[in-house]
User: Which sequence fits this backbone?
């Protein structure tokens, strides 16, 4: 089965820029992304991420005008949005659909996911393709994966995304989680990989081998902390090893897009902040990052304490 690829640069890369991208760049990025063969371009959060950020930019607000402009550029059937249920009201999904978004991904927590199920149902009724993202999946017990995946699928979610927010999964972990989720839902499973330990590509390969059919990646890996699965590497690997799964990938626009990003957005350059490597090693969330900014020995001792490692 062919892989459905989502470009998450404009959204996840926003963590490095305060979600500030020039509109002209965002539209050109989306155009080249579709030309390269991405099935969807996830252009923004709707009304912010989990933690409020001051002076939120274009791809953190996800306003109707931006959605409409992108839909005119690449067509509504390529425009994806993501949201936290706590940030929206029942007026948001109809407005997003009317503006031109056609894929919405709803981030569900392991506990207190009930409100998200109502938004899944509303989105399906409106005509969206609906996915759910399980954030910080490396910290979810298997029983919670089963419970929430079952509930989300019953509510109408078409794809369950395993989001390695802490960048802590190994290829074996990824295989096990993908297999478990597929056995519960019987539907599509996707992976959103972070690269704290340099394992994003290996995890993507493992997920697909275990039956995942949706994959997130970003240009130059631009995303929170050390970033995501690097789109250029992932698409080249897919095109080289399994053209049937790769579909209509064209590497030339991917490389042009990488050059455009590096020339336009300085924060797009690949980076591995050392505290984020420690976060990945000890399966800690980005909220602990400030506690790891001191001398390295002290930072590791703090991380061990936070992780409950003796």
Assistant:
């Amino acid at each position: 089965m062919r892989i459905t690829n989502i470009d998450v640069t404009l959204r996840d890369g926003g963590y490095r820029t305060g979600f500030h991208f020039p509109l002209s760049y965002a539209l050109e990025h989306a155009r080249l992304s579709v030309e390269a063969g991405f099935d969807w371009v996830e252009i923004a959060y709707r009304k912010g991420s989990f933690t409020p950020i001051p002076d939120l930019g274009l791809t953190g607000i996800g306003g109707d005008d931006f959605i409409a402009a992108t839909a005119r550029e690449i067509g509504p059937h390529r425009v994806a949005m993501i949201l936290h249920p706590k940030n929206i009201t029942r007026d948001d999904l109809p407005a997003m659909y009317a503006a031109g978004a056609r894929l919405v991904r709803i981030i569900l927590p392991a506990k207190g996911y009930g409100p998200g199920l109502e938004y899944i149902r509303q989105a399906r009724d409106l005509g969206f393709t609906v996915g759910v993202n399980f954030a910080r999946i490396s910290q979810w017990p298997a029983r919670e994966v089963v419970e929430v995946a079952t509930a989300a699928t019953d509510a109408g979610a078409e794809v369950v995304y395993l989001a390695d927010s802490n960048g802590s999964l190994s290829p074996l972990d990824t295989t096990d989680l993908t297999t478990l989720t597929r056995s519960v839902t019987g539907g599509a499973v996707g992976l959103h990989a972070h690269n704290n330990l340099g394992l994003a590509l290996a995890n993507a390969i493992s997920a697909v081998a275990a039956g995942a059919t949706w994959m997130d990646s970003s240009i130059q890996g631009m995303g929170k902390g050390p970033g995501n699965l690097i789109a250029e590497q992932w698409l080249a690997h897919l095109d080289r090893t399994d053209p049937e799964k790769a579909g209509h990938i064209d590497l030339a626009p991917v490389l042009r897009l990488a050059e455009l990003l590096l020339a336009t957005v300085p924060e797009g350059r690949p980076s591995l902040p050392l505290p984020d490597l420690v976060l990945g090693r000890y399966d800690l969330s980005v909220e602990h990052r400030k506690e790891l900014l001191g001398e390295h020995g002290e930072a590791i001792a703090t991380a061990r304490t936070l992780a409950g490692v003796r």
User: Anything to note?
Assistant: The mean pLDDT is 95.
